Structures are given as C-alpha cells and as structure tokens.
Amino acid sequence: MSSTSYQLEFEAPLRELDEQIAAIEASDDQSADARDELRAARKALLDKTREIYDHLDEWQTVRVARHPDRPMFTDYIDLVCDEFVELHGDKFFGDDRALRTGFAKIDEFKIMIVGHHKGKTLKERNECFFGCAHPEGYRKAIQKMKKAAKYGLPIVCLIDTPGAYPGIGAEERGQAQVIAESMLEMSRLETPIICIVIGEGGSGGALGIGVGDRVAVLEFAYYSVISPEGCAGILWKSHDYAENAARALKLTSKHLERLGAIDDVIEEPTGGAHRDHYQMAARLKMYLVKTLRELSELPTGQLLAERYEKFRRIGMFLEEAEP
Asked: Are the C-beta atoms of 99 and 138 separated by less than 8 Å?
C-alpha cells in the first residue's frame, strides 16, 4: 500500500501515519528497533485505512471515485493491455478526446477497448472536457464497436464520466439521440461485451457505453442515473445538498449489487485504487480474462438472448397482496 499526494478530509488520520513511515524510511537508522517501529507503523496504517474504508458512506464513496490519483483509462491501457493501437474520429465531425477507442490485446484475447478519459494535467482535462463526451465520441465508439463485431473481437468498455457533455453544441449535434443509438446498437452486437465502471458512472454519459453481457463496478466507484450535484440541483435547487442526494440515489457498489443493477463488484486494494495502481490493474485484468473466457464459450444466439433478458429484468419487482 502506497501513500498518495492528495488526501480526502476523512483520510486525515492516515496523514500522520504516512508522514511517520516516510520519516523512518528516510532515516539512516538500520537498528532492530527502527525496523520494529517501521513494521508497527505500517500495520497501524493498514488497520486504520481498512477501518475507514470499511465504513464509507455514499458521499465519501463518490469522493473516492473522483480522487485525482485514481487510475484512469490510459493507466489501465498501460498496465493491463499487452498492446494498444488507438483509433480516431467519427468520420463525421471530429475526434472526441473524452472517449477513446482502439484495438488491444490482453493475454490471448484480441479485443476492442472503449473508455472515458478525464485527463491528468489541466491542459489534458480541458481537451478531454473532464471526461464528458460529445456526440462525436459516441459515434466513434459505435463505429469501432461495429468493426469489432465484424471481425469477431470482444468489446471492453471502461466507464468513468460524470455525464455526457451538456453544452449547446453537443445538444445541437444530437447528444441524446446518439446515446440512445449507442445503447440500441450495443444491445444487438454479435460479440461479447464487458462494461466496467472504474470511477464515476454518471447519467446517460455512462449508459452510452454501458450495455453489455457483464456489467461490473469497482468497489469504490459509483453508478447512477444522475450525478449527486445534478440531483441536488433539481430536487433542492442547490448543490449544497449533494450529500443528501448521494444517500438517496443508492449509487454505491453495495447498493447496485443488492438491487440487481450490476453483475459483479471488483474489489479494490485497501484504501482504494488510488493507493495501488498495480494491484488494482492486476485485479481488473484477472476479472477481464476470466470473463472473456466465459463469454467466448457461449453461442451468439444465447449471448444476445441473455443480454436482452438481463436488461429487461433490471427494475422489475413483485408486489404481494396483503394476507
């Protein structure tokens, strides 16, 4: 477990332990007492981190999902994929940098990978619109996914967006329609599709690449019909109530699994993915390889039928008459 350059307010108890460990490691003292002190400090840090993260509320989970040190699409490309060749443009308007696509290889599987990218530096974030894709991004994604189906390549979608870009230009170019078309096309593509929420999964921006045979969420990611701030703005007319909205939306992995909205929860390293990129990438790769093997064995007809039934079941419930 490694420390990060940025810490959330509820992680304050960890800061002192991080500093204590750094001071011991920087000293020249190689005595047995120093080693024992370092070992005790590391154990205390691990125990405290586990205690905090085992009791996160909904709003704290949203904050973790947005952590600036959390691994992004490009990090997983580097750590999970053996090869990657990016594909650009929608052949209509432009190349949206918030939604990336390309051919990739993971172990023995050649795949098409699609994912949101928020950017790391301020310049890159402005180019990526902080992960909020425009219509051309979804058109690009549809085109590349169709290409994957044509050549029999499975599709992996990594979702990390607060929502589709809400600007006037995006609406003029058909934002809502293109998201609906993307969902329609994904529902009938004759190839395995795996969708994983790696950070934020907000609104139609997430759903636009969220229709698959398996939908998974990282342990401290969130997946919701709207961002907490957007919900608070509509219901309470103020973003100050975002914490209340997060609690009402039931957007954490625990809620989603209990509601049947997702198939799997991928466990994160102690303290969240931002504390150990390599371990998180290893767990993500293990899940992808296992799921790709399972889905590749299913006949196409069965794959499509189960995908259809899976999404038809979401939101269904039974009411029993009172005795």
From this structure: yes
Please choose, from the candidates 5, 197, 173, the residue with its C-alpha nearest in 3D space to the C-alpha of residue 92.
173
- Residue the block writes with tokens 């296992």: 290
Cβ(24)–Cβ(299) under 8 Å?
no
- Selection from 121, 120, 102, 119 nearest residue 110 by Cα: 102
Contact status, residue 181 vs residue 142, Cβ threshold 8 Å: yes
Q: pLDDT (tens digit, 0 to 9) for every residue of the chain, 323 residues total?
A: 555 667 788 888 888 888 888 888 777 777 777 778 888 888 888 888 899 999 999 999 999 999 999 999 999 999 999 999 999 988 888 888 999 999 999 999 999 999 999 998 999 999 888 989 999 999 999 999 999 999 999 999 999 999 898 889 898 998 999 999 999 999 999 999 999 999 999 888 999 999 999 999 999 999 999 999 999 999 999 999 999 999 999 999 999 998 889 999 999 999 999 999 999 999 999 999 999 999 999 999 999 999 999 998 887 666 666 65
CATH number of 62-313: 3.90.226.10
Which letter, b or e, does each residue of 213-233 get, where b requires 16 or more Cβ atoms within 10 Å of its Cβ? Answer: bbbbbbbbbbbbebbbbbbbb
List the beta bridge partners of residue 196. Answer: 158, 216
- Domain spans, the chain: 16-55, 62-313
The whole-angstrom separation of Cα 170 and Cα 133 is 9
